[in-house]
Write a structure and sequence with these properties.
The structure holds two protein chains of two kinds. By secondary structure, chain A is an all-alpha fold. Chain A contains 14 helices and no strands. Helices cover 75% and strands 0% of the residues of chain A. The longest helix of chain B has 36 residues. Chain B is globular and about 75 Å long. The chains are: A mainly alpha, B mainly alpha.
Chain lengths: 293, 275
């Protein structure tokens, strides 16, 4: 019975996708529908009222300064961290394309930060940046010649640089790996021909290298941009969004609303807004890829 | 690109490369070093750059207090969910590639599930789990990690399966193999490299998860990421515990990546090219 069932192509193909669809429906679609319904209701953990209140939660979104500040912070952080990672990753990739002794060993050591979980990366940098026992302040003190005690994860003006350092440290190797793989596939003969023809560095880069690495670079940037947009773990370990709300990113704000202040319906509205924005951006980005192909 | 690389330039490049490597490796060294320091060395000022001897007291404390269970919990949830997600996702990918099941819509719908930030669906899932009594259980976390990794596996395996020549499968079927046997004896072995690479990343995603574990575990199934953040107190911070637990949490990753390095580099570059 089972054998004839499996030999039938039509049944077979649907049988194969069935478990995947089931899992995604269960844990992907159900919460999503629940989210949309909740966002029109008035649920909080402290009373049992579940009345619908129309668009009230969405109206509140518009005038929630804390929300918009967290969005701006997240976008700014993405806009600063991403180009730094991209450029540093590219420079590293160019360096390692050349002949270097012990290349393979060095590359695998450089990749270490990317393997580590963001939680451990955050913990590591808290150790590194500790005002008294951390080596970073110690090195700065040596260079400055006096005792320097910077409060990296406490002082409002230094928390963002601290998080940025950890973020760039962790994800530059990822960019490096992808760009290194892409650059290795660039046609050498074309490059040499361009050199013989006397093309400038910039011309060679724009006309030959960039088009060749573009697909990989695009995907790398898209992956990292999406990750940065929902950054939570790293910031949570380093500052928990503090001091005050100085490093409160969108994800952290959403977490605070749902699990600290139990504004369930309102946090559902926030979640829905985020999913909506992301969908718009990603669809637009993917359409661009389709067009460029 | 010069034909004759002068020794000087080679050494200059090597020096720069080495410097960069040290820069990236040092924080990892520092983490490991602290976990082996004696309590006096951890809180010494100025900091001790090289611990005088291997001091295992931080690790012993973790074992004595039973905190290492968190690493075991991570291992169980990440391990089982990886196997499940690989199985379910690969089958789906095969169906999508070979039979064009669901056309483009199905595959796009599946991958779009990956985009949703975990924090956005965390609360509905939490409510669902409360009503099903799945909070703080292995089954709960395993189901969640499986579901969240299926899109990734499907997407990646799609690319690898596309590369398998269809003629191989056809000739196997002419030889009298059933569909199911073709899948097991032709497709799976051919996609071995892809399976390994994808499995490594699936495992890493589940292993590194923090948000879901934070929300869905209370006291029983606490993973190592939740444990590490738990040591950061408002009054005192337990550096030696943090570092030792972090090292225990990172070690399996290093082992996995070191043994699978060949597959990973290829997997990353291929996945990126294929998109």
């Amino acid at each position: 019975m089972l054998k004839t069932l499996l030999d039938n192509d039509r049944t077979f193909r649907y049988l194969l996708v069935a478990p995947a669809v089931f899992f995604i429906l269960l844990i992907g679609l159900y919460p999503f529908i629940k989210l949309i319904i909740a966002s029109f209701q008035n649920i909080s953990l402290f009373d049992d009222i579940r009345s619908f209140q129309g668009l009230l939660n969405y109206e509140r979104l518009l005038f929630d300064d804390r929300l918009w500040h967290s969005i701006v912070r997240t976008l700014l952080f993405t806009a600063v961290a991403l180009p730094i990672e991209l450029v540093l990753g590219y420079l590293l990739a160019v360096l390692f394309l050349e002949k270097i002794p012990f290349k393979a060993a060095l590359i695998s050591i450089i990749l270490l930060p990317t393997i580590i979980s963001p939680i451990v990366a955050g913990a590591t940098w808290r150790l590194m940046l500790d005002q008294r026992f951390g080596p970073v302040n110690q090195i700065i003190s040596w260079l400055a010649g006096t005792d320097v005690k910077l409060l990296w994860t406490v002082s409002a003006s230094l928390v963002w640089p601290a998080i940025l350092i950890a973020e760039v440290w962790q994800w530059t190797p990822f960019m490096f790996l992808l760009l290194y793989a892409a650059l290795s596939n660039v046609d050498r003969e074309q490059l040499e021909a361009a050199q013989i023809d006397g093309a400038s560095w910039w011309m060679t880069f724009r006309r030959i290298v960039l088009p060749a690495i573009m697909p990989v670079m695009f995907i790398a940037v898209l992956i990292r941009a999406l990750d940065l947009f929902r950054v939570f773990d790293l910031v949570w370990t380093m500052t928990q969004g503090g001091p005050g709300t100085a490093t409160e990113t969108l994800s952290i704000y959403a977490y605070q609303m749902a699990f600290r202040e139990f504004e369930i319906s309102y946090s559902a509205a926030i979640a829905f807004l985020v999913i909506f924005l992301l969908t718009v951006v990603v669809v637009a980005a993917l359409r661009r890829v389709e067009v460029s192909r | 690109m010069n034909k004759r690389d002068s020794g000087l330039r080679l050494w200059l490049r090597f020096t720069i490369a080495l410097f960069v490597t040290v820069l990236f490796a040092f924080p990892v060294y520092w983490l490991v070093a602290i976990s082996f320091k004696s309590p006096e060395e951890v809180y010494a000022y100025p900091p001790v750059w090289f611990p005088q001897q291997f001091n295992f007291s931080s690790y012993l404390t973790l074992f004595r207090d039973g905190d290492v269970w968190a690493v075991w919990n991570s291992l169980v949830t990440a391990g089982i969910s990886t196997v499940l997600a690989m199985l379910v996702g690969t089958l789906a990918a095969y169906s999508i590639v070979r039979f064009r099941t669901g056309g483009d819509h199905l595959s796009i719908w599946i991958i779009s599930q990956r985009m949703i930030p975990p924090i956005c669906v965390a609360f509905p899932i939490f409510l669902l789990y409360v009503s099903w009594n799945l909070v703080d259980t292995y089954v709960g976390l395993i189901m969640l990690y499986t579901a969240f990794n299926i899109p990734y596996v499907t997407w990646m395996m799609r690319g690898y399966i596309q590369d398998i020549p269809i003629e191989l499968e056809q000739s196997a079927m002419i030889d009298g193999l059933t569909r199911w046997q073709v899948l097991r004896k032709v497709v799976m072995p051919m996609a071995r490299g892809g399976l390994f690479a994808t499995a490594v990343f699936t495992f890493i995603f589940a292993w590194n998860d923090f948000i879901f574990a934070l929300i869905l575990s209370k006291s029983e199934v606490v993973t190592y990421t939740v444990k590490v953040t738990g040591y950061f107190g408002s009054q005192s911070t337990f550096w030696s515990k943090i570092s030792a637990m972090s090292v225990l949490g990172v070690l399996p990753m290093f082992v996995v990546v070191a043994t699978m390095q060949k597959f990973i580099v290829r997997g990353v570059s291929m996945g990126a090219v294929k998109g």
